[in-house]
Amino acid sequence: MTTLTDLQTDRAELAALAAQRDLAEAVAASRPAAELTAAAAAVQAVISTALASMPGRFARTIAGEHDETRVHYLLSDAVHQLLEEIGRQAEQAAVALPEFGERFRRGARPRDLLTVSQWADRERWITSGTNAPGQWNTDLTPYLRDIMDDLSEHSPVRTVVFMKASGVGGTEAMYNWIGYVMSHLGNRDMLAVCSTLELRDRSFNPRLSKMFRETPALADLVSRASRNSSNRADVLEYGPTAKLIKAGANSPDSLSSDHIPYVVCDEVDRYPWDVGGEGDPGTLIANRQRSFTRAKTFLLSTPTNAEYSRINQAYLESDRRRRHLPCPHCGEYHVLAREHLRWRLALDPFAATSKKSQIVEAAWFVCPICGSEIHEGHKTAMLAGGRWIAERPHIKLTHGYQINGAYAPVGLGLSWVQLAQRWVSAQDDTTKKRAVINTDWGEVFREEGEGADDAAIAARCEPYTRADLERAGCLRRVTAWADVQKDRLEMTVFGWGDGEEAWTIEHHILPGDTALPDVWEDLGAAMDQARVDVAGVDSGYNTTMVLKFCETRDWCTPTKGLGGTARPIIEDALRRRQRLRRARRKGNPIEPIGVDQAKAILYARLKQDKVGPGYLHFPKHGSIDAEYFAQLAAEELRVVLRAGRRFPEWVAIRPRNEALDCAVGNLAVCRLAGPLPKAGNHRRSAWSAEEIAEAINPTHRPPQDTPQPRDPPPPPKPTRRAAPARPIAQRLGW
Prior knowledge:
Radius of gyration: 36 Å
Number of strands: 24
């Protein structure tokens, strides 16, 4: 019977036999000390010879070169080749101990000197969310090659600026750089800044996770577990010690990270100018890179308005590169510029209105050199032969690139016909035109309405009356808005037609102390006699009286003008509903008005010379006089410099601007009331001739040749009409 002692003895014997075997193998693999010494001496001689040859070798490599970028690339390649040669020569020299030489060669071999585009072509995969799934191929978007390669480790470029249209692959270039840093470099920290934390969580993080899933070279770098401490919403750890910090430009805490060499800033034109009272986020980001001499920054964005576009300002400070393509007919290089796009229109038999009756049937570019037509079938070959040309080549460390949607590869972006159609459809709408210029053409939008000429506006006056408009069936809605001053109220009445075509009907000046009820009774009577559908009153002065006035008039709204070029004229429906729920408990809520955008739209429409949607009409009668037009043109949009940053700001060039404020208020209350009623559904369409005549106060329309005072006296008090008791929706026939 086997005992425990016997088993223990057998185990000890087996362990002894294994140790003897390991010793024998080690002895067999060992080499005499003399062989090791001889091999080391041979390798040392190789290294000494190589180091001695370095100065002359490098000097010959860059001889005659003056471009800093070219010199840097040549030296990087020379170092790479030298290390490979040292490894091969050391392996050959270590004849006394070949194993030593072979291991030294493997250790001396440098990491592949890859550019970002080379890494992407080798490692990046996109299997979903694209019209060209599969392995990344930079040849499909050749204009991205230089942009990505400037971000490579061995490139001397420090800042890359990409002002782009939507759909040209800029975002994918950003993800390629992130993948390159994580996979190829592996030991570098990185900061990715989105415009907001919400956008980071909703868009950036899911797309980053998608890239990890689809790209094998990145799949094992980070944990896929959502609750893993190394994979959080704000930070992603990879490699031994490296991390990717994911921040929002609206959060100072997320920007207050450690010093980081590589930074990518996405959609910088949507960054706030001040974040949490700590200043410009751009400055906070730059502070994170101070301790690195070879830091790199990638700025990319679709531009916005010229006056405050961050990406445009950065582009103007760069070397300003544009993509030039060869003409398929004359071979000369040129830019696919918007002014060179041509199209042919055709009638759409299925269109409901004349506005939509024209569609783009074909589109092409015209070569500015030879005048030949360039069709989209030429684009693929042209893209392959394109090149970036810098306007300021003396700028070496900051490369700026600008490109529009016409360069998008066939099938991966908007076609030229679609670009032309969107441009044609946007001509009557300033908001649409801004979006097309920004997103389709990658250009800043310059406000056409930067100011107005009062004499030019006055020349537009037409001999119409309200009765004329009613008989013609032009009016879909009548609005009024009153400006509140200490000693008077001023009110303008507007009539609105299709496409926000507007007719100024009358302007009232009602003198009186606005802290007392008398002048407010006059305002109510004037609104009643004007038979307005909806109205608004400025609540910036004597707010208590304004709220009291509106409290008994469900069709009249207190308003408050708010500045800011990015603030919409009225809130979007969701935000407004949320605010109204909170405000109903406090009585009649005050509606915010984005006055800067409203002024821009009005001034643009005042320069419109084509009668139709958006056009502003003015009558030839006494309440609309020279003083009215002077007040209407009382402001200009100027760019002011504060704290080193440029801001667009509406500046008063005349002391009084009540007419402009009333026009802004009328546009706002018209939009607050919702879509305009269709023809025939306007509640005043059934007025009798007597009612129409009564609605026109002849005291406000003196003979045209009668000189008018600068501040005309107020009209006599009209007979008051009881305020409607029906809700606003019912009054408008909805």
